[in-house]
Structures are given as structure tokens and as C-alpha cells.
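Possible regression after last week's pipeline update?

I re-ran a chain I had predicted before the update to compare outputs. Posting the input and the new output here so someone can diff against the archived version. Not blocking, just want to make sure nothing changed silently.
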Amino acid sequence: MEKSHENLEAWKSSMSLVKSVYEVTARFPVEERFGLSQQMRRAAVSIPSNIAEGAARYGSKEYAHFISIARGSLAELDTQVKIAVMLGFLPSENSVGELRDRVGRLLTGLHRKWKNPHYPLPTTQASPSAAVPQTE
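New output (post-update):
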């Protein structure tokens, strides 16, 4: 079974974002290991995970829902990055910011695409009706 989410630029970029978040949080103070560091990592991991879960669903409405959750996780991460900057754990210009902006643009585009109930579903779905958009 081909995994259609792995071909999405939003998924690829969000995986890069996860790596970047792990790299910068590894340099946080040790007392933040179970605090802000873990929250940032969980929010970052949630983004590509929800893109993948949405791609595995059969309805465009469901897909849009999971993309929306990924956007929410990105907003959480954005706030957490700002907190890390405010506390002096990250410089204001950091590797997470540029990737975060790119992922945000890509998720917005995906969300618009899948909110349209007439947009065809990926042909890699296992369902025989996968090519027919489903409205719920």
C-alpha cells in the first residue's frame, strides 16, 4: 500500500520541523527536559502524525478535520517557541521559525483543498469508492 501522505510536501516539511524542534530543545536547560521541551516536541510530532492520519481516512471532510488538528498543533508550537525565546532558551531568529512558517502555508493550502467536498480523494485509498468525494 502506497502511503500518500509521504508524498505530501506538508508532511515532508513537518517532518523536518520535528527534527529541528528536537535539535533545539536538546540544548534547553536540563530542568526543562520534562517541561517546555516535551510540550514543544509533542506539538511538533502531532503535525505530521495528523497529516498521515487524515490521509488514511476515506472522506474529504475527515481529511480536512485532521489537517485542522495539525494546524492547531502548529499554533501551539508557535506559542511555545515564543515562550522559549522570551525565556532566553532560543534566539529570536531560529531554525524552527522558518520551517514553522513554511508548514503553516502548506497546511493552509491543504486545508482549503480538502474542505472543498468536490475535490477528488487520492486514488491510493483502499476503498472502491475512494475516487468519489464523500460528504458527511
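Follow-up from reviewer: compared with the archived run. The chain has one domain: 4-115. Marking as no regression found.
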